[in-house]
């Protein structure tokens, strides 16, 4: 039995590869924030080492019940102090590599969840 719809009515990620994702027929090659509400914003970080609390405060300012953080080519966890703005707002965050984050975002967005994917896209 199929439990998810064939077509989802929210912004979804149509493909991904090393250093890029596809959204609405466009190939995106720089870090990006994608929201199930339709927002798509550039995220000013080129590599994991560029991240700071400011990046996660930006996410906390958005309206979401859950943040999916794609940490790049491999799984790397943000420093606990960086997550304080999300903890203060009681917003959940899950960390995974960017490819897994793309898949997870699509599933949750397709279920109608208020989810944001913050995707670190590192150049190859």
Quick recap:
This protein is α/β, with parallel strands linked by helices and 124 residues long. It has helices spanning 53-60, 84-89, 98-110, and strands at residues 13-17, 20-23, 26-28, 32-35, 40-42, 66-70, 92-96, 115-119.
The name of the CATH topology is Hypothetical Protein Mth938, Chain: A
Number of beta strands: 8
Question: What coarse outline follows from CA principal-axis ratios?
Answer: globular
Q: Give the count of helical stretches.
A: 3
CATH architecture: 3-Layer(aba) Sandwich
The H-and-E topology, N to C, reads as EEEEEHEHEHE
Biggest β-sheet: strands ordered side by side in the sheet? 5-4-8-6-7
**Biggest beta sheet attributes:** 5 strands, mixed
What separation lies between the terminal Cα atoms? Answer: 39 Å
Uncertain stretches of 5 or more adjacent residues: none
**What average pLDDT do the residues reach?**
91
What's the structural blueprint in terms of helices and strands?
Blueprint: E1 13-17, E2 20-23, E3 26-28, E4 32-35, E5 40-42, H1 53-60, E6 66-70, H2 84-89, E7 92-96, H3 98-110, E8 115-119
Give a structural overview.
- The chain is α/β, with parallel strands linked by helices.
- The protein has one domain (24-119): MTH938-like (Hypothetical Protein Mth938, Chain: A, 3-Layer(aba) Sandwich), CATH 3.40.1230.10.
- The chain has 3 helices and 8 strands.
- The strands form 2 sheets. The chain has a 5-stranded mixed beta sheet, with helices on one face.
- 28% of the residues are buried.
């Amino acid at each position: 039995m199929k439990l998810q719809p064939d077509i989802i009515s929210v912004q979804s990620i149509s493909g991904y590869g090393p250093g890029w994702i596809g959204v609405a027929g466009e190939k995106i090659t720089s870090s990006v924030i994608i929201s199930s509400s339709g927002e798509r914003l550039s995220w000013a970080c080129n590599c994991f080492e560029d991240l700071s609390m400011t990046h996660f405060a930006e996410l906390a300012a958005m309206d979401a019940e859950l943040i999916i953080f794609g940490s790049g080519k491999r799984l790397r966890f943000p420093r606990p102090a960086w997550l304080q703005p999300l903890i203060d707002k009681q917003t959940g965050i899950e960390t995974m590599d960017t490819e897994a984050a793309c898949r997870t975002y699509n599933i949750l967005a397709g279920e109608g969840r208020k989810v944001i994917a913050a995707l670190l896209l590192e150049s190859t």
